[in-house]
Amino acid sequence: MSIFIYGLADPVTGDIRYIGKSIRPNERLTNHCNDHSSCHRTHWIQSLIAKGQRPQLVILQELPDGANWQAIEQQWIAKARSAGWALTNGTDGGDGVVNLCDEARAKMLKTWTGRKHKPESLVKIGAASRGRKKSEASKEVMRQKMRGRDVTWGSKLSRAVRKLTDEQVHEIRKLLASGEKNSVLAKRYGVHRTTITNIKMGYYYSDVPE
């Protein structure tokens, strides 16, 4: 799947006012037009829409899947600025987080805090994602990023979702050793009897010392 570096141009003057990246630029243009967040790009686009206009989509460069689009987008933005283009980009490009000023970060945080997708938006997102397949090149990039990564949050998450405390596990072990039935203990502690069986066999809560 190709990657596109695109520009949004003024429909009257033809001047490019924004540079971005997308694998579906036409869909991205629609998203831009429906965006009402507070930034220079959105204010410009909404001013056009108020006059019955919308930006013109210009494909600046097409890249193969897996290409280093971040660097190329940054190059386009840098060249445009050096040429005096009145860009509405708030960053230097490449994921939109390079050299982001404190004011822009604060605005982004305020804009997104507490925001939730509308039900119809969730349906559209689900429909767009359903059945989408990543290319082998994209899969390999993800494998390279994940290879060798030390997952440190697994044990913390496991303990956070446990139903039984360490003290309860100790009590259950003692009661099991005294001959108490699994079904009785399961009812007493509000868990499934399989949980009690797995505690007895050492499969569950094995990290809780005896």
Structure, explained:
The chain has 210 residues and is mainly α. The chain has two domains: 110 residues; 41 residues, no CATH class. It is 50% helix and 10% strand. The chain contains ten helices and three strands. It has a three-stranded antiparallel sheet, with helices on both faces. A hairpin with a 6-residue loop joins strand 1 and strand 2.
How would you summarize the topology of this molecule?
Elements: E1 3-9, E2 16-22, H1 25-34, H2 40-50, E3 56-63, H3 69-82, H4 102-112, H5 119-129, H6 136-146, H7 154-160, H8 166-177, H9 182-189, H10 193-201
Antiparallel strand pairs: 1-2, 1-3
Helix pairs in contact: 9-10
Percentage of residues assigned to helices:
40-55%
Order of helix and strand elements from N to C terminus: EEHHEHHHHHHHH
Radius of gyration: 27 Å
Q: Please report the total strand number as a whole number.
A: 3
* Average pLDDT over all residues: 84
How would a textbook summarize the main sheet? 3 strands, antiparallel
